[in-house]
Amino acid sequence: MHEPVAQPTTEVLAAPTAPRGRAIVVTSGKGGVGKTTTTANIGHALARRGATVALVDADIGLRNLDLVLGLEQRVRYHVLDVLEEKISLDDALVRDKHSPTLCLLAAAQAREKDDVDETKMKALIDQLRERFDYVIIDSPAGIEQGFKNAVIGASEAIVVCTPEVSAVRDVDRVIGLLGNAFRPQLIVNRLRPALVKKGKMLSVEDVNAILRLPLLGVIGDEPEIIITTNRGMPIALQDEGATAAAYRAIAARIAGEDVAAPTVEVKDSFMDRLGSFFGGRR
Amino acid sequence: MFDLVEVVEGRCQLRQALIKDKRFGDCLSILPAAQTRDKDAVTPEQFSSVVAQAAEQCDFVLVDCPAGIEGGFRNAIAGVGEAIVVTTPEVSAIRDADRVIGKLVERALPIRLIINRLRPEMVRTQDMLSVDDVCEILSAELLGVIPDDEEIIDMTNRGEPIALNPSMRLATIYDKIARRLEGELVPFTSFDSPGFFGRLFGALKAG
Amino acid sequence: MLEFFKNLFAPSTSSSTAKERLRLVLMTDHISLAPEMIEQLKRDLVEVISRYVEVDLQKIDVSFEQQDHALAMLANIPIISVGRPTAEPPKPLETPSAAAPTAAMKSGGDVTPLPKRKRRRRASTAQASV
Ligand SMILES: Nc1ncnc2c1ncn2[C@@H]1O[C@H](COP(=O)(O)OP(=O)(O)OP(=O)(O)O)[C@@H](O)[C@H]1O
Ligand SMILES: Nc1ncnc2c1ncn2[C@@H]1O[C@H](COP(=O)(O)OP(=O)(O)OP(=O)(O)O)[C@@H](O)[C@H]1O
Ligand SMILES: [Mg+2]
Ligand SMILES: [Mg+2]
Question: Is residue C28 less than 8 Å (CB to CB) from chain A?
């Protein structure tokens, strides 16, 4: 039933002194801004580059990463089973259907965030870092225990913000809590360039004038993301399209490549794109 | 300016902490949350007693619950008699809403559902779950449906309440929800009628 | 019109996929949220089966698994011995505890029933609305 999980790349095996894998927490403070969507898509985009990736759902009690990845039918065990030593890490890791180097460690659904022992959580992330190039942790909303659990094992942070005042305020709070230790980088999600043009939405510059973080990427507000989530097939799996390309560029930047600064062209307006649903779509 | 934690700690009266929104005459006041304190600075019992105090002075006390099902959620639901569950027609939101409804049902709280950010044209092309789908999956009673509308983002940016702008179609939607909360039987407008799509499409385009 | 043909030939729409996936995942969630119910179900299962064959109480395993489009209950109940077949089938018993010594295990009083929520209250309107 359980295939062996992804092994570290041969390079890592050959050079024990090489730095261990990176543990990156995806967080925001604000609910519903796209942390889980971002985690899933960055995971696929990194795996496409040949990296081994473990995605950890830290949203105990409200898990969704399995659903967004389309792996909900394969989840048997969860992170608390591992922390409580009921099951081995290998048995709990679910290998992705599409990206063989991508694995999911699901959250427990019937448990509480307070059930997590932070020390053990950190040890678990460290253990994953020995085996994977990237360990990406999907943080829950808020700044309570769930946030602490998500952050404890991470060494870097990606903060996701939508161009909306309430999100910017919450993200600002989270950046304050993270401090400099996590070298947080920003992803602006759900941008509607046409609205920015009309002056009805904050621009990326507006957002970052307040947050002042290195900009990792910008993702548009795309109906296609809702559709791919309905199907459990993250958009980054697609070969074509601006959004998949944007996630690949983010992955490249994470990997340290010098990719040109993210730009979002003002395409046809939001309505025009919606209009295309009436004609062109499958 | 005082906040909820200061009320709880007895450093001020509830009356002093309530901020009147002058735009609504004497009808609407806001009790701000503390921004610099943890959610466990307040216990559910304390929270509940503040809500009870507020309920003595007001017809309705609306508690804005944080995301998640942690301490903030337990506080928010401690003193209330009913719940409005807000979800979007998307898989992640619905799964979380189901979990929250389970917790509310455990406490025997009556529940009504608001479906937010619906995109009727995506429902029509069957790329988004319909209102019926969501109500059926969650088996909950419907209180209202709010379309995904850029005006909401714009108004939030400006800090202007939509309800004060009766010319907006959205104001009517919130007004209907308010009337349903008051117990009035306000009929639901059907999404199925082609006229509705035309109207909404037009409204979005105009905006 | 166009829409009609598109839907006719499309394998399944994204919203129907979403609905189906949610239906399954919520069933699984509800089951994991009601462990007491599963324990009770196990006890009841044993009780019924013990009327016919002797089972190994210690090794009973009941699990749930999603299989394509359904949730399946998998019960693994090791049988210790089977009585000689008789002309008369064992009588279904009214009082469960009388069935077999193995079934004497108490069927606990306060058992949380499964996701009662299933059909708590039907959505009041069949029509979508604003
Ligand atoms: N760029 C985007 N364009 C359109 N829809 C999006 C985009 N990003 C996310 N969404 C949608 O927004 C909803 C919330 O996204 P997601 O679940 O990833 O947020 P989250 O921050 O993880 O939420 P939570 O705080 O509850 O964990 C989802 O239904 C998702 O499909
Ligand atoms: N119907 C809508 N159409 C368009 N935008 C909307 C709609 N409803 C809410 N929004 C936008 O979504 C963002 C999040 O909304 P809001 O802050 O009310 O969410 P919330 O559920 O309270 O989030 P949190 O879980 O973080 O408390 C806001 O910027 C708001 O402008
Ligand atoms: Mg999430
Ligand atoms: Mg909020």
Answer: yes
